[in-house]
Write a structure and sequence with these properties.
The protein is an alpha+beta fold. It has helices at residues 31-42, 64-75, 105-115, 143-156; strands spanning 2-3, 9-10, 17-26, 51-58, 81-91, 96-101, 131-135, 162-165, 167-174, 179-186. The longest helix has 14 residues, at 143-156.
Length: 196
């Protein structure tokens, strides 16, 4: 299942699913709702679900179940951690506007490194950089105004600028850029027990 551009839930038939997968951590309310609203303001008619990517989109050379089992095996031993968001920034080569991750970036890099192996391995086009995307694929002439608007809205936000990363979601893309949640894994579900 996925959501159409109007936010309605829809079933995605297998023939519309692409061999493009990612691993994300969704951002809960109220921060996630603020970020979704901001992204829609910057890129109208976009139906976002605020997240930080652990594994950016990639093709798989194995079936999704095999890859999903690898995610589960690591996620259940990975302790939850806090993620704090800091400043608005832009990637110079792509003009992607994003919010920088402060605390939690080291854990996200370690998690990415551990997950980007075996069934999930991919030679990514850019070095992994933990962030929350706000706008992408906008005309270059519109970038300065979008950065100014994003910076102003972020400075006006009075809610918490952090969240607990306690679950990861394995997702698949489909035609029309609709992402489908395939499986959700609580982090640290296999608690390490200390000897008595």
């Amino acid at each position: 299942m996925g959501f159409d551009p109007n936010g309605r839930l829809r079933r995605i038939p297998p023939e519309e699913r692409l061999n493009v997968f990612a691993l994300v951590i969704y951002i809960p309310e109220p921060l996630g709702v603020f970020l979704d609203d901001l992204r829609r303001e910057l890129v109208p008619h976009y139906n976002p679900h605020a997240h930080v990517s652990v594994l950016p989109p990639r093709p798989l050379s194995v079936d999704p179940e095999t890859a999903s089992k690898q995610v589960q095996a690591l996620a259940e031993t990975w302790p939850p951690f806090d993620v704090h968001l800091t400043d608005i920034a832009v990637f110079p080569n792509t003009d992607v506007i994003y919010i920088e991750v402060g605390q939690g970036a080291q854990e996200l890099r370690a998690m990415h490194s551990a997950m980007n192996a075996r069934a999930l391995a991919c030679q990514e086009p850019y070095p992994y950089h933990p962030h929350i995307t706000l706008a992408q694929e906008i005309p270059a002439a519109d970038v300065p105004a979008a950065i100014e608007l994003a910076t102003r809205r972020w400075s006006e936000f009075t809610g918490p600028r952090y969240f607990r990363a306690d679950r990861a979601v394995f997702v698949q893309n489909s035609v029309n850029d609709v992402w489908i949640d395939l499986a959700e894994y609580p982090l640290g579900s296999l608690a390490v027990r200390s000897p008595r």
